[in-house]
Design goal:
Radius of gyration: 20 Å
Structural class: alpha/beta
Order of helices and strands: EHEEHEHHEHEHEEHEEHEEHE
Distance between the termini: 28 Å
Shape: globular
CATH superfamily of the largest domain: LpxI C-terminal catalytic domain
CATH class of the largest domain: Alpha Beta
Number of strands: 13
Largest sheet: 6 strands, mixed
Number of helices: 9
Oligomer: single chain
Number of domains: 2
Length: 280
């Protein structure tokens, strides 16, 4: 990473703002790229390029004009409904390779998008490269600790998410008393936790056993530069609403946004945050 302008493809959520602040502190010019008419509330004086999915040619011209050589992707962006009638010539040349990938999992889609940006001479960097201090440490970072039941649920969730990753579906699952209560899919972690909160009461019959573990971990072989898993205050609030025992994340592989607030909220609700290591 150098001192050149950094482009942030900014979706919703807290991560883009944290990245912009970190880059600014490093003395870097930050240029925001937003799609679907999105305007971040936290934006101050950063230049903003309004991206149009059907017109990547205009986007790349704007990025090069702004002096951007590096780009980072952060936040949630809704998959587009593409209108071929609006294609510019660049999109016409990309369509045959790119459009089929939009009908596949996030991994395949993001790999295709990554290849397009790299083909334009833009170096993609990962959010964790700018925010390495937010990578989950090892061990339990809350007052509450996982019980033996919770650790068994964690192991079961690891098995499940391994299959999810192989199928390019998601990066998380909720398991309670050995039963899978929710799987992360394209709708994301928050939607999964909302589903668990609304539907799972009858599937946790033992009040004295573990009440559920949310697991978040990268997919096997995932390019960490794009879509590294994150948790934050909202994750913990939703886990509490879902009446879970706690949250488990893979150490040094998941970003914990606003970590002090995240731990404080977990302690308030009596939830654990356990950062487990993976052998090998």
């Amino acid at each position: 990473m150098g001192s050149q302008a950094l482009a942030i493809v900014a979706g919703t959520g807290r991560l883009p703002e944290l990245l912009a602040n970190a880059a600014t502190k490093m003395g870097r010019k930050v240029v925001l790229v937003c799609f679907n008419g999105y305007q971040p509330e936290w934006r101050t004086d950063q230049p903003l390029i309004e991206g149009v999915f059907e017109k990547p040619g205009n986007l790349f011209k704007s990025l090069h004009k702004a002096g951007c050589t590096e780009i980072v992707f952060a936040g949630y962006i809704l998959r587009p409904r593409i209108n071929p009638l609006k294609f510019d010539m660049k999109m016409v040349s990309l369509a045959a390779k790119l459009l089929p990938k939009l009908k596949m999992g996030d991994g395949a889609t993001l790999d295709a998008v990554k290849a397009v940006f790299e083909g334009e001479g833009l170096n993609i960097i990962g959010a964790h490269e700018l925010l390495s201090d937010l990578l989950a440490p090892s061990g339990t970072i809350t007052k509450a600790k996982p019980s033996e039941d919770d650790l068994n649920d964690l192991k079961r969730a690891q098995e499940i998410t391994a299959h999810l990753g192989n199928a390019d579906v998601g990066q998380g699952a909720v398991v309670a008393q050995g039963l899978c209560l929710g799987l992360e899919s394209i709708q994301g972690t928050d939607a999964m936790l909302d589903f668990v909160a609304q539907t799972s009461d009858n599937y946790r019959p033992d009040d004295k056993a573990g009440q559920g573990v949310l697991l978040k971990a990268p997919k096997a072989g995932q390019d960490w530069r794009i879509d590294l898993p994150t948790i934050g205050p909202q994750t913990i609030e939703k886990a509490a609403t879902a009446r879970l025992s706690g949250v488990a994340v893979q150490a040094q592989s998941v970003l914990i946004l606003d970590p002090e607030e995240t731990v404080e909220i977990a302690n308030k609700h009596g939830l654990f945050i356990h950062c487990f290591e993976v052998e090998g």
